[in-house]
Amino acid sequence: MIVKKEKLFLDKIDAGLKIEPKDWMPDKYRNHLIRQISQHAHSEVIGMQPEGNWISRAPSLRAKMVLIAKVQDEAGHGLYLYSATETLGITRDELIQQLQTGKAKYSNIFNYPTLTWADIGAIGWLVDGAAIVNQQSLRRTSYGPYSRAMIRICKEESFHQRQGYEIMSKMANGTPEQQEMAQDALNRWWWPSLMMFGPHDSDSAHTSNAMKWKIKRHTNDELRQLFVDRTVKHADVIGLSIPDPDLKWNKKRKHYDFGEIDWDEFWEVINGNGFCNKERMKNHVNAHEEGQWVRAAALAYVRKTKNGG
Amino acid sequence: MSANQLPLWEVFIQPKTGAPFQHAGNVHAVDKEMALQNARDLYTRRMEGTCVWVVKAEDIVSSNPEDNESFFDPADDKVYRYPAFFKVSKKVKEL
Amino acid sequence: MAKDFLYKYVLALGDDALILGQRLSQWAYKGPFLEEDIALSNISLDLFGRANLLLEYAAILREKGSTADDLAFKRNERQFSNHILSEQPNGNFADTMVRQFFLDSFYKLFFKKLTESKDEQLSAIAQKSIKETTYHLRHSSKWIIRLGDGTDESHEKAQSAIDNLWMFTNELFEMNQIDNNMLAQKIGVDCSSIKAEWDQIIDEVLSEATLKRPENTHTTSGGREGIHTEHLGHLLSDMQYLQRAYPDAKW
């Protein structure tokens, strides 16, 4: 029976059809999706912190409003993705618990600190830029709710990258101090952004199933290459230099060759030893715990009014 | 219900006057007032709607796509897991 | 002289929106649940939008070439004329909602009157603000009711917030020389005349929320004259930091 169901399932995938919440699916597929979508959601939510850090100090009213809107979008994206994950038979509570106990991960990039205003520019330009490359690929993912959430997110994402690039551009063309700030931010955020695409394909445990089930549509290395090719050109336009001495246009491949990522740093940060890992989690836990009495009050009130009290 | 878990509501948005409502996703909220506000904040930030409906997820009745071969659960009336995102039928046009 | 009065009047309204918006924006990623995070940042955005319109108008009245950002980022503590209530710290969620509720009720009544202003700019800004404020008031008053009539803990926190913030509410209805001048010119609002209605809104919601007015009804003011609480200085030094640190830079 299960073998027949599995064949139907794989046929659907191969035919490019969507799998919906009430369709039969192998446990491995379900669990892979819960892991992947929820981690994406957690990333959006944790990602609010490094950027939220500069809202109160944004240097103009316009920059402030744009940043608030961006962080708000991130909360919204987190919600779309939690929404999609919940269709797989897990609750928001369980998801939050997984995040706070470290059982579920979130994108490493948000474990880096935002030291200056230029970091906000770098995040929009590079981190959102990398996310866009990844997300555009996911619009055609096989699981229906995930695909629809990604389409929605992609529509909203392009303003994010433009916001960041505009900040970098203004600074790169500003005072010497601003230029220095912008270049410094690029120096610190470039390599972590490349790490966002994950390990090399050869070292990635989850890739083969993800590709077979069309959860993932392109490999880590393919996406990373695409990102590098696009972004180098952006940097050239505003006169900033990518901090990679091995970066070179390869005429034969028609792509940029680039240096090797520091995989030690990559694994250190994933394993919890990044600059801000503990702080990000502490903030998340605090907000959640501090919010407990508010949620309890809201629920208590509803119960009272339901009972006509 | 646990103190942490606010009930789930499904959200339907009418993109413009006269158009059919489309399922947009869901929100957690304690009551319909909050559900409406949250739905507005989450799904119409970019002016994507003229009207919003919210329905408690548990009140939605869904058909079972695999009625014949219901191996795991013969769920008929109640949604087994979670309602599928409804697709807008392309056949519905304004008269 | 007349222009100076108008400038100061508009500036004060701009400061009100700016400082309150700044306070609310500090809730990013700290809300009791994600949906509420979005709601609070929405309100904050509305307020900054209003602040921007008002400060832009004030800048035009002030001098050629002056901008809203100049006013927001380069004035010092004694030059800000916002109501003291707006600058009070966020505290816990009840503190924020009570502060918001007191102000939303006031703004709803205030902007309704301001739509009748002979000054077209102010009238237009008021019309936009009414729509937003109606939504803000729905949100904050509903929370007062949930918190007041929720659990013992939330009731206590809400009552405590009311007791602490009440003293800053009277300032909203005071009329100084500038207000009176603007009123005489049919540009400004008679704030003292809206107190009765404000009291009604407050009492209705408090009653439904099983909350009470505080026993100590002592009040204080001074914001319009640039006499603030110590909180404003810290808020400004944070908000204005980049522009102050890099005076030659354009952002």
Automatic annotation (TrEMBL), chain A:
GO terms of molecular function: phenylacetyl-CoA 1,2-epoxidase activity
Annotated signal sequence range: none
Record-level GO BP terms: phenylacetate catabolic process
InterPro entries per the UniProt record, alphabetical: Aromatic_CoA_ox/epox, Ferritin-like, Ferritin-like_SF, PaaA, PaaA_PaaC
Pfam hit, one: PaaA_PaaC
Gene3D superfamilies assigned: 1.20.1260.10
Any one Gene Ontology cellular component term annotated for this protein: cytosol
SUPFAM superfamilies linked: Ferritin-like
PANTHER family: 1,2-PHENYLACETYL-COA EPOXIDASE, SUBUNIT A, PHENYLACETIC ACID DEGRADATION PROTEIN PAA
Protein name: 1,2-phenylacetyl-CoA epoxidase subunit A
